Amino acid sequence: TGIWQGDDMSTSHMAYTVGTSMEGLPSTSQPDLLSQVERAIFQLYQDPNPDNKITADRWLQALQNSPQAWSMAWVLLNHQSVEVQNFGALMLQSKITKAWTELPQEQYSTLRLELLKAVGRFSGGPRLVLIQLCRALVAFAFNTMPELWPNAVVSIIHSLRGATESVPENFSNAVLQLLTILPEEFESTSATVVASKRGVLRREIQNGLQSVLSLLEEVLSSSQPKTTKIAAMRCCCSWVQFGLPLPEVSSLVEQLFQGLLDQEMLPQACETLTEMVSHDDALKYPNTLRKFLQRVLQLRDFISTKLEENDTVRASSSE
Fold first, then answer.
1. Is the pLDDT of residue 303 over 90?
2. What does the DSSP 8-state code read for residue 152?
3. Number of neighbouring beta carbons within 10 Å of residue 45
4. What share of the chain is helix, strand, coil (3-state, %, to 5)?
5. Cis omega before residue 146 (within 30°)?
6. Cis peptide preceding 126, ω within 30 of 0
7. What is the phi/psi pair of residue 141, to 5°?
8. pLDDT of 30-87, one tens digit each?
9. How many Cα neighbours within 13 Å face the side chain of 73?
10. Closest Cα to residue 216, out of 276, 283, 267?
């Protein structure tokens, strides 16, 4: 068996992290490592004793840093508890980001497939687990594109559509979450693998821009819930940094302007349009930008009124 699909779950491999029995945690002499993880996670999140929380956190960190975490993460993802599932997803993301060299290259394709399946499986929630799995898949993409995973952005969209084809709304939830995280992780990550080939990654991500824009137009023009459309607008906001060709996204811009007329979608539509026109690349298209701004000015009073109404509603609900 491989490093991340191993079936040897004996606690003897964790002896160096725990040693003898510690107060509040089971001894490593117990045969079931999973029960120890369950107990530690329970103590970390629900035990009122701060010493137990510290002990549990250290033990879980040690497990997360061990090679055994590659296999244990998948066991935790199959658990019924959301907290345990979330820790399994977090463990995967941590291993892919910080311990990539532990994984043999011949296992990359299998790991990619399993990550895509996991994102599809959790596409309907819980959202916390979905976010961590998306971050894990993005970290995997950064480690393997473009040499081992060319056209990764297009591949991800296609694969997730196939994995969630029976529930279109779940596809939108998963793919929009992942495509929102990808640009954010590109900007914020300090991983050496990203820093060493940042330019290459940027170009590779930009190669998927048209597919992303087509997807966003598809969602915004559909009959999907407003929450999904707001997520699409938020995703668009994340991709502005890669330079949106304004003359080529007129239908997307039209959908965003339509969003300004809806009380719920207005704030995000306004933020996304603002990001688009304030980005340096917008200056490349002066004629389009001029028309864009003229339309915004025509709606200025309407937008101001609606935003004030939203603020009033929020203030009333918080009282």
1. no
2. H
3. 13
4. 75, 0, 25
5. yes
6. yes
7. -60, -45
8. 337 889 999 999 999 999 999 999 999 999 999 999 998 999 999 999 999 999 999 9
9. 29
10. 276
CA 289 distance to own-chain centroid: 31
Give the start-end residues of each E strand in 150-228: none
Cβ atoms 39, 26 nearer than 8 A: yes
**Among 21-25, 46-50, 118-122, 277-281, which stretch is predicted with the lowest mean pLDDT?**
21-25
Between the two ends of the chain, the Cα-to-Cα distance in Å is: 58
Residue type, 110: T
Q: Which residues contact 294 (CB under 8 A, 6 or more apart)?
A: none
Other Cβ atoms within 10 Å of 277 Cβ, number = 16
DSSP code for 20 = S
pLDDT digits (tens, 9 = 90+) for 116-158: 999 999 999 999 999 999 999 999 999 999 999 999 999 999 9
Under 8 Å CB-to-CB from 284, ≥6 apart: which residues? none
Task: Determine contact, residues 288/247, Cβ cutoff 8 Å.
Answer: yes
CB of 161 closer than 8 Å to CB of 214: no
Q: How many CA atoms lie within 13 A of 232 on its CB side?
A: 27
User: 193: exposed, middle or buried (C-beta count within 10 Å: 0-12, 13-18, 19+)?
Assistant: middle
Give DSSP secondary structure letters for 31-76.
S-HHHHHHHHHHHHHH-S-HHHHHHHHHHHHHHHHSTTHHHHHHHH
Nearest of 247, 319, 317 to residue 282 by alpha carbon: 247
Distances 279 to 245, 249, 276 between C-alpha atoms, Å: 11, 15, 6
Name the pTM for this structure. Answer: 0.84
The first and second tokens of residue 80, run together, are: 């019924």
Q: 3-class SS at 123? A: coil
